[in-house]
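User: My collaborator sent over this chain with a note saying "see what the structure looks like." That's all I know about it. Can you take a look?
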Amino acid sequence: MTISALTAARAGLVSCGTCGLLAAPTSPAAPGHCPRCGARLAARRRGSVETTWALVIAAAICYVPANLLPVLGTTTLGSTEYDTIMGGVVFLFTSGSWPLALIVLIASVMVPLGKLLALAYLLITVQRGSVASNRERTRLYHLVVFIGRWSMLDVFVDTFTVALVQLSPLMSVQPGAGVVFFAAVVVLTMIAAESFDPRLIWDAGTETEPDVA
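Assistant: Without extra context I'll predict from the sequence alone. Here is the result:
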């Protein structure tokens, strides 16, 4: 006697990409709409891997100038100083505000880099047809989606600083070019996470998983 794992695909069901409801498709060619939220059903997102790869690569390219270019320029009595993200972290640490320095380091440097590495890992394992750690990889994907919004911390800090510190001609603060690239990294990684179809993680296991005697 053989026992094969039952999945939604094998049961003839389609999960809604918006609310997650499992629904019976109208037909394989045209699954129809979700009965709960009304979103269009799709067995798999078309071109998910290619689109996600393009967004991840674009975000990785923007990540370099985001960390090398200044994100903030401070003008005091005619003298202007520019600070990068890491420069701000070092300044906060040396001035005694190490908790804030740690928060900025994690949210503005480590989190975007971690998201890029996580998405690249998911894409590579899906393309290689990996059948290991499906649950862990699915949890990793949902974690990437969850923490995506918190990566904008550095942009928010710069925005508030620019709005509050305007004492011309004695002192003024202006955003630097690095903010634009940093915001691009955050937006691109968020869109990349949304374009990735986590159901692809389970497809290899469905196709290649051996039956248990």
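A starting point for your reply to your collaborator: The CA atoms of residues 126 and 169 lie 56 Å apart.
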